[in-house]
UniProtKB/TrEMBL annotation:
Residues 106-136, 262-293 are annotated as: Disordered. The lineage of its organism: Bacteria, Bacillati, Actinomycetota, Actinomycetes, Kitasatosporales. It holds the Pfam family Epimerase. This is 3-beta hydroxysteroid dehydrogenase. SUPFAM superfamilies: NAD(P)-binding Rossmann-fold domains. Residues 3-217 form the NAD-dependent epimerase/dehydratase domain. Residues 111-120 have a biased composition (Polar residues).
Amino acid sequence: MRVFVTGATGLIGSTVVAELLGNGHTVLALARSDASARAVEAAGAEPLRGALADLDVLRTGASRADGVVHLAFGNDFSSPEALARNVAEESAALAALGEELVGSDRPFVTASGTPQTPGRLSTEADPVPTDGPVGGRGRAVTAVLGLATRGVRSTAVRLPRTVHNQGSGGFAGLLTDIARRTGVSGYPGDGTQRWPAVHALDAAALFRLALERGEAGSAWHAVADEGDRVRDIAEVVGRRLGLPVESVPAQTYGPLGPIFEADQPSSSARTRSALGWEPKHPGLLEDLENIQP
């Protein structure tokens, strides 16, 4: 299968590209810079120059492929306005890609987040939030899944709060970055709230399975660790960086503060059963031992 991939050079995207290539697929990858294009070529894929905001380029990429995997998302979380811009840009991109695929029965796999369900593990049957700081993203992904009624084999791989590799990535990576900057390895509240996590290599395998076998309109959970306590994450970060570990105000994390405070464990039982997905790589707390002081 020839697969068009957005976000192909990121922490997750680079592993997805390698997973696809290693399993007999070819990859056409969106590349927004010369450096990204070189990285794509070095990985064995073909670059298509353009950014996520270049809707005509996205349509071209989708038209040249047998399937699409969307992973790109802006990295500016500095303010509510910046987060809203990220969500709006992605929403427009998803709509453009989806319209190009209508009536083709081609697979369209997009990334989402595991939902929060107070008092229990979230499951694949739970809806993603359509309000709050990232509600716009939930609405866009819901629209993608709705394309199942219009001849698109659309699926969503729901990623946990931390997708990690060699001690980097996700919300745990943000905790590490903030700890380096502030001199304190902090956690909001009492730190007993739980975050699900997955190794990037395991997540990549699930994206491939969803592309190859996912039913139209389906959602899958890329969850290896159902819920690591945030205080435990902060303690590993603090020990690796030689910093004190303390509770800090949620405002420390800007617009993501309310999400960082929330208890949000998640299950992948249905995903494992239906697709035969089984995580094989180190869990989050073990992987964080790779943080360099």
